[in-house]
Amino acid sequence: MAAKRLYDWGVIAISMLAGLVVIFPLIYCIGVSLMSPSDLGSYPPRLFPSTLFLDNYKTVFSSTPIFTFMWNSFLIAVIGTIGRLITSSLAAYAFAFMEFRWKKGWFLLILGTMMIPGDMLIITNYITVAQMGLINTYGGVMIVMLVAAVFMFMLRQHFMTVPRDYRDAAFVDGCGDLRFFAQILLPMSVPVLSSITITSFIGLWNTYLWPLLVTNSEQMRTVQVGITMLQFPEGMVYGPIMAGVTVILIPSVLVFIFFQKQLVFGVTSGGLKG
C-alpha cells in the first residue's frame, strides 16, 4: 500500500512538473507584458514584474487596430474550420461506407497530397487566387483552407471502426445515408470532431504566410500579420509585443477550454442510446 501511494505521488509530481514546463512560456509572456522598461532591462532577468505596468496594453490598442485583426482571424478560423469539418466528414463517409469505382486509388491520391509541403503550393495557389480576383478578400484567404486531407484521413479511420451493422440497422428502420450520417454517425464521433475543431481553429488562427501574401490593406490583416506592426524603428519593444501576443492568445485558450468539455462528454457518453 505504501509503495502504491508513493508511486501515485511520483506520477502526480512528474505530471505537475511536465505541466509547469509546458505552461512556463505562457507565464513568462504574461509577466513580460506587465513589465516596465526598467524591469525588462534589469539583471538578473525578472520572471514577474515589480509593479503592474499596463501601458504595454495601452500601446497595443492605440498603435494597432487589434480588434479588427482579431475579427479577421476569428472569421477566417471559424469559417475555415466549419468548411474543413463539412468536407472532411462527407469525404470520410464516402470512403468508409460507400463503394464506387477507383475508391482505393482516390484515397491513395488524397494521402499523397499530405506528403507535399504546403510551401510548395503557395505560388500556384497565389496565381490561382489572383486570376479569380480574390486578392485582399476573405474568400481569397479562406479558399485554400476549406479542405484538409489529414482530417479526411483521421475521420475515415474513425468511421472505419464503426460497425457496418449500425448502418444496416438504420437503413432497415428507414434511414438514408444523409440521416444516418447526421443523426447517428456524427454524434458518435464527437471526440474526433472536437479534436479536429481545436487543431483546425488554432492552426488557422496562427497562420501567417498565406494571409500576408493575399492581403494588402490594414483592414484585411490577421492578428499574426498585424502584430508585426508593434515593431518600432528604435528597436524591438518586447513589452508591447508580449502584450499583443497575450491578447491574441485568449481566443485559442477559450476554444480549447470549451471543446475540452466536449471531448470529455464524447468519451463518457458512449456511442448509442437504447
From TrEMBL:
InterPro entries, sorted: MetI-like (IPR000515), MetI-like_sf (IPR035906)
Gene Ontology annotations for the cellular component aspect, listed alphabetically: plasma membrane
Record's keyword terms, sorted: Cell membrane, Membrane, Transmembrane, Transmembrane helix, Transport
Localization of this protein: Cell membrane
Gene Ontology biological-process annotations: transmembrane transport
Membrane topology of this protein: Multi-pass membrane protein
Domain ABC transmembrane type-1: 70-259
Domain of life: Bacteria
Cited Pfam families: BPD_transp_1
Regions crossing the membrane: 12-35, 69-94, 106-129, 135-155, 184-205, 237-259
PROSITE patterns in alphabetical order: ABC_TM1
Family: Belongs to the binding-protein-dependent transport system permease family.
Protein name per Swiss-Prot or TrEMBL: ABC transporter permease
Organism: Paenibacillus tyrfis
